[in-house]
Predict the structure.
Amino acid sequence: MKVETKSGFKCNVDERRLKDWRYVKAASKINGGNEEEILSGITFAIPFLLGEEGENALMEHIEENGTVDTERMLAEFLEITRIIGEKAKKSQSSLSS
């Protein structure tokens, strides 16, 4: 699945990864855990969904003055997951039509 964020970051996400148990566990931490669990889930989910190359490309995309800002990284990741969710819903609704 091709994804492009508002900031112009482009990546491909293997849709099978979204249904992988390891990602589901990480997503449950992100959505309902304490701060430590949320960070643990995110630090697993980003490279799992994007691959190592995708994660590195994302970091390079948002890097400024040699620093990868955590808030920008999280914002991009949340946007990526929102876009994925929207595309998945559209795909499911077109299948049921």
Notes: The first strand starts at residue 2 and ends at 4. The chain has one domain: 2-96.
